[in-house]
Amino acid sequence: MGRLLSNRKVTILLLVLAVVIGFRFFRNSMYYGRNSVEPRYLPLVSLDALDTAEEKWQTVGLRDYDLDLKFIAEARTSLIHVEVRNGIAVRMTRDGIEELKPEVCDEWTIDSQLRQIRERLAPDAIFRSSHVEGSQMSMYGLFDENFGFPSDYSRQGFGSAVKFHIRVIEFAPKLSRR
After folding, report:
1. Is residue 80 part of a domain?
2. Are strands 88-94 and 150-158 parallel, antiparallel or unpaired?
């Protein structure tokens, strides 16, 4: 009976240990992975990488596309859907709720995203990229190899600057009919 109790204690201890390790692995993969506001797998965005991406995007010349994005900011995750025609956002939803302000919709076009990344990489971006003077940030990201759009990028603020992570879920070019 004593040996059975001992084996049972060892089994329970191992089970508890496995649950704790599994939970920590799950938590870390969610926090530091593709669903995190701080994705550790992304490289710093360089001006060279951004220049190459913008050149690809301009060369491809897509003006009509649909874009689905996952937007993670601090404690909130949103799904963004944007429909762009002739380079202008004609429809945008956030978590299924339609946005009616054209200036908000236009922030999500690829041209606008590339422009925002460039602005934040500018030498004086420390002060222009945040509402609070002195806040600093770093840009991390990857660009699509074929089209050049930002496929996975993150702005990591220090101090009071807001952190966010945007990942493209689906990019659907549309054929223009002329």
Report:
1. yes
2. unpaired
